[in-house]
Amino acid sequence: MLLAGVAAGLARHLGRSTATVRWWFVLLAPLGGAGVLLYLWLWALVPVAEPADAEEAKGLRRATPVALLLLVALPITALLGSVVADLGAIGALAGAALVCCAVIAWSLGVDRLDPSWPAAYTNGTRLLAAGILLLCAVLAALGVTNPQGVMTVLLASLLALVALGTLFAPRLVKLWSELGSERVARVKEEQRAEMAAHLHDSVLQTLAVIQNRAGASSEVARLARAQERELREWLFAGPAPVGADLAARLREVAETVELEHPVVVDVVAIGEAELPEDAGQALVAATREAVVNAARHAGGDISVYVEIAVAQTEVFVRDRGAGFDLAAVPDGRLGVRESIIGRMQRAGGAATVRSGETGTEIVLRWPETRRA
C-alpha cells in the first residue's frame, strides 16, 4: 500500500527493491522510533518527484477518499479511546487528535500528489482536520481541574504545535527549496553571461575576421561561419518560445545550404505562435527549395526573414541576383512552380514570387496559424 511514496522513492534512488526498504523502516521502528522518525524526516525534507508521464500519474490515482473516511471514523476512534481504553475524556481527545494527524499527513503526503483529487478537496480536508485538532487542544486545556492537569495542558500545546507544523512545514520546505533553486539558476546565468562576454571578445571576433579575410565563397569562410553560428546559438539562446521549432528548422536549412554552396544565409525569426505540423513541414520544404535556388542562381548573401503571428505566418527569402521571369521558365522546370508555389497551395497556404534586376523575393504565407 502506498502511504507517502518515501520507501518507493528511496528504493529507486538506492537501486534496491521497495519491499527491502520498507522492511528496513519496520526493523528500525522499535529502536527508539528511529524508523518512524527517518520516514517522517524524508517525507518532510526530500523534494517531491512529479510523475514521469500521464500513465504513471494515472496509475497513482485512488478512487477511495481515505482522508475523508478517516474523518468519518473519528467519533468511533474517540469512543474507543474513552470507553474501551477506559481513559475518559482525555482518551477521547487523544484518539480524535491522532486521527486528525493521520488525516492531515495522508492529505499532504498522498492526496495532494494525486491528480484525480481537486485542490478544493485536499485543502478542505486538511483545514477541517486541523480545526478539529485545535478544538481537541482547547478542550483538553479547559478540562484542567487539578494539579495533575499540567500534563494535559502540555499535551494540548503539543497538539496545537503539531497541527500548525503539519499544515505549514511542507510549504516552508517547498519555499526554501524554490529559493535554493532560484539562487543556483541565477549563479549559473551569471557564469554563462561572463563566459559569453569573454568568448565574444575573443573567439567570435576571430571567426569574424577569418570570414572577412577569406571571402564568402571560400571553404574556410563557410566553416568559420558555421562554427560562429553554432557558438552563438549555444551562448545566447534563451528559453525557446512556442514558435521556436519552425525557426530552428529553418536555421538548420541555412546551415546545410551554406555547407553545400558558397553563400551566406542569414535567418531572422520573430513572433510566437503554434503551427500545425503539416503547415510547418510545407513552410520548411518550400523555404529550403527557395534558398537552394537562390544559392544556385544568385549566390552571395541570402536573407530569410520569418514573422510568426496569430493572423498568419510569413517567410521572406531574398537574394541580390539578376532576377528571372517566372513566365519564361520552361514547363519542365518545376522547382518554383511545384516545389514552392504548388507545395504551399496544397498545404492550404500561398506563395508569391517577385523578381527584378535587383534580386528576387519569395514570400510564403500560412494564413491559419492558431494562437498558442
TrEMBL record:
The Phage shock protein PspC N-terminal domain, residue ranges: 2-48
Domain of life of the source: Bacteria
Biological processes per GO annotation: phosphorelay signal transduction system
GO molecular function: kinase activity
InterPro entries hit by this protein: HATPase_C_sf, Phageshock_PspC_N, Sensor_HK_TwoCompSys
Transmembrane segments annotated in the record for this chain: 25-46, 66-83, 89-106, 127-144, 150-169
Keywords on record: Kinase, Membrane, Transferase, Transmembrane, Transmembrane helix, Two-component regulatory system
The keyword Kinase appears for this protein: yes
Keyword Kinase attached: yes
Protein name, per record: Two-component system sensor kinase
Organism: Arenivirga flava
UniProt lineage: Bacteria, Bacillati, Actinomycetota, Actinomycetes, Micrococcales
